[in-house]
Structures are given as C-alpha cells and as structure tokens.
TrEMBL record:
<feature type="domain" description="ABC transmembrane type-1">
    <location>
        <begin position="20"/>
        <end position="305"/>
    </location>
</feature>
<feature type="transmembrane region" description="Helical">
    <location>
        <begin position="20"/>
        <end position="37"/>
    </location>
</feature>
<dbReference type="InterPro" id="IPR017871">
    <property type="entry name" value="ABC_transporter-like_CS"/>
</dbReference>
<feature type="transmembrane region" description="Helical">
    <location>
        <begin position="279"/>
        <end position="303"/>
    </location>
</feature>
<keyword id="KW-0067">ATP-binding</keyword>
<feature type="transmembrane region" description="Helical">
    <location>
        <begin position="43"/>
        <end position="62"/>
    </location>
</feature>
<dbReference type="Pfam" id="PF00005">
    <property type="entry name" value="ABC_tran"/>
</dbReference>
<protein>
    <submittedName>
        <fullName>Cysteine/glutathione ABC transporter ATP-binding protein/permease CydC</fullName>
    </submittedName>
</protein>
<dbReference type="InterPro" id="IPR003439">
    <property type="entry name" value="ABC_transporter-like_ATP-bd"/>
</dbReference>
<dbReference type="InterPro" id="IPR036640">
    <property type="entry name" value="ABC1_TM_sf"/>
</dbReference>
<dbReference type="InterPro" id="IPR003593">
    <property type="entry name" value="AAA+_ATPase"/>
</dbReference>
<keyword id="KW-0472">Membrane</keyword>
<feature type="domain" description="ABC transporter">
    <location>
        <begin position="339"/>
        <end position="554"/>
    </location>
</feature>
<keyword id="KW-0547">Nucleotide-binding</keyword>
<feature type="transmembrane region" description="Helical">
    <location>
        <begin position="165"/>
        <end position="185"/>
    </location>
</feature>
<dbReference type="InterPro" id="IPR014223">
    <property type="entry name" value="ABC_CydC/D"/>
</dbReference>
<keyword id="KW-1133">Transmembrane helix</keyword>
Amino acid sequence: MLKLVSPYIKLYRYYWQRILLGMIMVITALSASIFLLSLSGWFLSATAFVGVAGLYTFNYMLPAAGVRGAAILRTVARYFDRLINHDTTFRILAYLRTKAFKHLLPLSADQMQHFQKADLLNAFIADIDHLDHLYLRLFAPILGSLSITLFIYCAVNYFDHTVALIITLFLLATILTMPLLFYYAGKRLGENIAQFKSQYRQLLVSYLQGQAELTLFNAKQAFRQQLTDTESQWLTLQKKQSNLLSLASAVIILIVGIMTLLIIGLVSNGIANYDPPVIALLIFIGLSSTEILAPIPNAFLFLGQVFASAKRMNHLLAQQPSITYGNINQTFTDDKCTIIFNEVTFSYPNQPLSVFNDINIRIHSGEHVALIGQTGCGKSTFLNLITRSWQPNKGSITINNIDITHFDEYSLRNMMAVIPQVIHIFNDTLRNNLLIGNPNANDEQLIAVLKKVELGKLLTAEHGLDLWIGEDGRTLSGGERRRIGIARALLHESPLILMDEPTESLDSLTEQQILAIIANNYAGKTLIMVTHRLNEHALFDRILLLRNQTLTEIKP
Ligand SMILES: Nc1ncnc2c1ncn2[C@@H]1O[C@H](COP(=O)(O)OP(=O)(O)OP(=O)(O)O)[C@@H](O)[C@H]1O
C-alpha cells in the first residue's frame, strides 16, 4: 500500500522547510492547547482552595498571564499552522497537476482514447485533491500527536512517574491501534466513495455535453434519473462514512474518559500526597489528550479514498508516449514539400481489418490532391498518419526524403497546416482564436487574412479583433467556423496543407466561395484535401481514390 503513495511522499523532500515549519506550528498549537487547559485547571482549583484568605498572598498574576499567553500562542500557532500547511499542500497539488498535465500532452491518440474526458477531469480535480489527505490529514496529525505524547510524558513525569506512564501508554496504544482499526473499517467505504464520485462526474459531463440531443429526443428525464441515482448512492456512502467518523470520535472520548478516571483513581487514592491543584493539573492533562487524538481516526478513515486515487494517478503517470519525435530541426521555407508513402500498412489497435495495406504513393511538391472514398474507408486516417497522430504498423512516410519520425515535433508542426473536420473555436477573442495559427502575426496580418476568408464583417468598429467569440461570445455559423479554420491555416504559412472535408455540410454557394479561397491562396503549395464531393475538379491536379485498403489514381 505504501508503494502506491510513495511517489507522492517523495515529493515532500522538495518542500521540507515548509513542512518542518508547519510541523513546528502543529506541535506549538497542540502544546499551547494542553498547557492552557491544564494550567487553567490548576489555577481554578488553586484559587478555590486558597479562598478569600489567599486574596493578598496568592500570586494571581503569573498563572493568569500564563493562561492568557497560552491562549494567544494557541491562536497564533493555529493560524500559522493552517496558513503554512495549506499553502504547502496547495504547492504540492499544483506541482502534481502540472506534472500530470505535462505527462498527458505527449500521449498519442491511441493512448488518449483509453481515457474518457471525464476520467481526466476526475484525475485532475478529485484524485489529486484526495492526495492532499496524505500530508494534511495523515502525516501532520500523526507526527504532531507522537511528538506531543513525548512532551506530555516529560511534563507529567516531573510530577508523577506512574501517571506519566499511564497517559503515555494510553496515548501510544490509541495512536497505534485506532488508525489501523478505522483504516480497515473505512477502506471499502472510501474506495466506493471515490468510485461513485468519479462515476457521477463522468455522467454529469456527458449530461452537460449531450444537453441538445437529450432535450430534442426527450431523454433528459431518464438521464437525469441516472445522475440522481448515482448521487444518492454516493450520499448514502458519505453518510455511512460520517457515522463511522462519529463512532470514532465517540471511541476517542471514551478512551480519554477511561484514562482520566484511572488518573483520578490513582491520584485521589494517594499514590502520593499531592496538593489538590496538582491533582487537578494531572486530571486536566489527561482530559486534554482528546485534542491530540481527535484527528487520528479522521486521517485513516479517508485513506481508502487516498489509495484509490493514488492508484488511478499512478496509472496515468505510468503512461509513456508511444509516439516519440526525432531531432531533425528543419523548416522548409521554399514551399517545397514532397510526400512519399512507402509500403504503408496501418490498422487501429484491436481491429481485425487493416485500414491500409502496403500503400505506395508520391505526392509531388506543389500538387493539389483530392482524396476520395466511401465513408469509413480511411481518408482521415491517411491525414492522421502524416500528422503523426497515429503511426504506421509497417512502412514509412517521408517528407522531402526525410522520414517524418526523424523530425522534432516543432519542425513537423511548422511544416504543415491542418484544417480538421471540426474547427474548435476557443472561448476567447477573435484575435486569440486566429493567433493559434501563428502567434507572431500582427493585427494587420490578422485583418488581411480575415478579409481573404471573407470574414471581414466580424470586424465591427466597436470590438475589432477584440470581439469575443465562442461559447460566451458571438456564435459562428458552420461556414464561418470553417473560414476561421482556413484563416488559421493561412496564417501558419506552411508548405503543406491538409484539409479534412473543409466544405462538408455547407451550401453550394459557400462551398464555391471556400474552394475559391483555397485555389487563390494555396497555389504552389502541396495540398491534400479529403472530400466527398468533387464539384471543383479544376482545383486538383490529381484525384486519389481510397478503396479496399489501397489507393488508386483516377483522372480528374
Ligand atoms: N480510433 C479508432 N479506433 C479504432 N477504429 C477507428 C478509429 N478511428 C477510426 N477508426 C475506424 O477506421 C476506419 C477509417 O476511419 P476514417 O475516419 O479514417 O474514415 P473516413 O474515410 O475519414 O470516414 P468519413 O468519410 O466518414 O470521415 C473506420 O472504419 C473507423 O471506424
């Protein structure tokens, strides 16, 4: 089990100074608390015993100052304990989130398809959050209570060895046995809660993403019911966990009660001849142990959840990118781009049929090629092999006689502009949506390109390039989205352009306009366009038909 969380524990070494400071604050707050309670007990009984006679002889000032000092120290130490320990946890969580994200980015499409979007959301939010229990709820309270036990032993031993031994034995036995007991009692619950939480998130994401379909098909109610059922099962488990937590607190109070009774029995039956205020002091020290023991069951009850989350995170972090890049850093500025497929065979994992079988094709520099074929024959896959979203099982692909696996990722991305089937519009300004194509483009270039793709009308006097588009801004029509995609590709200024059905589902006028934009702007560049319709034959030098896992050329 420790192996599961050891990668996260190892992270603590980077934050050891903060952790040390946090621990000092935990120990100070606990010590001040115990000192406050026992001194108050002693002070009250001492004043009661001296009575009115002690009005002029008893030193009220010193213990009163001690009580006030301990109260102030406890408040200040608690404040800094929360501040430092939570800050440390947030830093660790931020580090973990960044690490997980960096780990995820280079994974191939093949690897990513094993994770649902909601799974990833879970990993980033819930799983990483659960890991904060490790330090905040486990290590800090346990280390704090062990140190305080030692401190109590030394302090009580000054008055009475037997009482010191009893308190220490009770505390140690509780600190060592209760966690195990409540870990096993809460393990199953914790794992199930983590699972239901994750299931609920997945359902919720699907529900929100599929709102339109669910509404149109009147299926909202049934889906909502699934969500409600999952939620109520999750809440039932949480209720059980709360009950277990209450039981744990009750057991702690019972243990402290028994220990205090034992101390009362011992000190009042005269194991030594103590002043009554000292008796009160020892009893109050016993009572204050509740403060030390209270967080212990809490720590272990949630451990099942922590382990379940650690397991999922470990699985995510164990993924190694299956597609790696070479180190050739080359940008082709002269628009020369010849692509060759050599004996390329490809099939998707776990699929019985291959998509391509020993494909050989040379696409010359500056050629405009249409790629046609029936639905599902592999046209998008052909482009995905060039972008290296997928890797051929056999054979190779070269660009300008260099195997594409030898380019570094920056060069590869730089040499091709891709217009995918679905253009993603970010919830951002028009400017930032265009800058994705070329982050160095200036406003004049952006405006010029917008006019080229006939989106000049978006440039209102009021907002200009700062117009907010996407979910919270001006919504774009299908044709306008495609034009944004083309604008990005134009800004990218690469020698190779890959287009996946750029005119799909557009009316014929818009289609003609978009094809004209492509013809006017991509002369001299290598262009491969996946299409179902061949309305604009003049645009293409060659037409390739993909059928039965092979490519054949047909006359335009
Ligand atoms: N990630 C994947 N895992 C398994 N099979 C896949 C995957 N992606 C696509 N396929 C399958 O591979 C085949 C080729 O898919 P591809 O998307 O390349 O076809 P297409 O010709 O572009 O289709 P369309 O014209 O409908 O866009 C299809 O049978 C598809 O179901």
